[in-house]
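Q: Two folds, back to back.
A: First:
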Amino acid sequence: MHHAVPNWDLQTEVFVPFIVGDAALSSEADERIAQNVFQCDLQPPRLERHSYAEMRAHYWVWKHPPGVDYIGFQHYRRSFVSRASGRSAEIRASAETYRSRDLPTLTRWIAGLLDECDIIVPRKWPALPDLGADYAGSHSAADWQVLLGAVDATIGSSPDLAQGIDYVYRCNMFVMRADLFDAYMNWWDAIMTKVAAAITPPAEGYQSRTFGFMSERLFTMWMAHLPRWVSSPVRIMELPIMIGDFTAI
């Protein structure tokens, strides 16, 4: 996923470059979209509000299903890497290192993992002392209460789904079976529709991505309570993330 037209991207039979938001309206993007180099989220139904961040791509793919068995998302400077890279949740890399990765090898590696699991997620990132307090420490405590209220209104009277969770799956990144993706997005959409009706995020700045930050926590809750939504066993694999130490490429 890209929020601007890049000079470099991953494109193979598995990796599909995707531009979200108004960047897809530029002449350069239009030309590359016409050449089937990029997909974009301009065709409705779509999410227009910037606050959804990368969830705009999730929503668009959900509403325009590509007819594949697995669906996944990573960012232009955040990508899954092998567990052999070490025990850390995140690994920093220069633009040169990021670009030097062998695309055929990457493609075979990520596709091969799908024989071993149903969902791939980033390694857990600490959210201490718990998911709610961690969110309130970086964002808005009042917004967190709105989110919990929307969760409760969606699934009925229940305990706080965030209670006891001391980690977060960051970045709204995953790879999962298409049926699981559909189940998650139905759940996410029902909750975030209520949240979006109650909250107006700032127009600019870090907190303008409020709905994206909330979505990381919603995904974490959904994963933590998978048996509530999915009756059959689900094989989960956690992988570290490589973060490119650059702003754009």
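A: Second:
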Amino acid sequence: MPIKNYSTIISVERTISQIEKILALHGANAIMKEYDGAGKVTAVNFIVDFIEGKSIPFRMPLNIQALMEKINYDIDNPQEREGRIPSTRRDDMDYARRVGWRIIKDWIDAQMALVDLEQVKLIQVFLAYAYDALNKRTFYEILEENNFNSLPLLE
């Protein structure tokens, strides 16, 4: 199966703007972007009021290295997928950013559709991305560091 949005030509800036609009329409009262040293967006952070004046920060990162590795793998192994990523895209980080942010935008949009239908709560779908700014880790990263010991795991 091809990488979702592998043929996108939509700029990162436009996609990030669409992400911000989706988040704002669903209750985000603050949105911030993180950048690498080259001025490229590496994460979108947002804050949502939860209950009784309490707010929760969330962090949606783009793991550009993992995505670039997957793109390069797909270029080297075309028999394993339907879509054809041109070999000119090898190590093309701008291309990977366009694809990656587009995938994140689609995922956020789909999650918000479930929120709109009252199938889930916003915090429910974004909980793994709840962000501890002091320690610079998401809830998922904290759980992972503790071997998920605080979860009711089956032996």
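Q: And?
A: Residues 12-145 form one domain.
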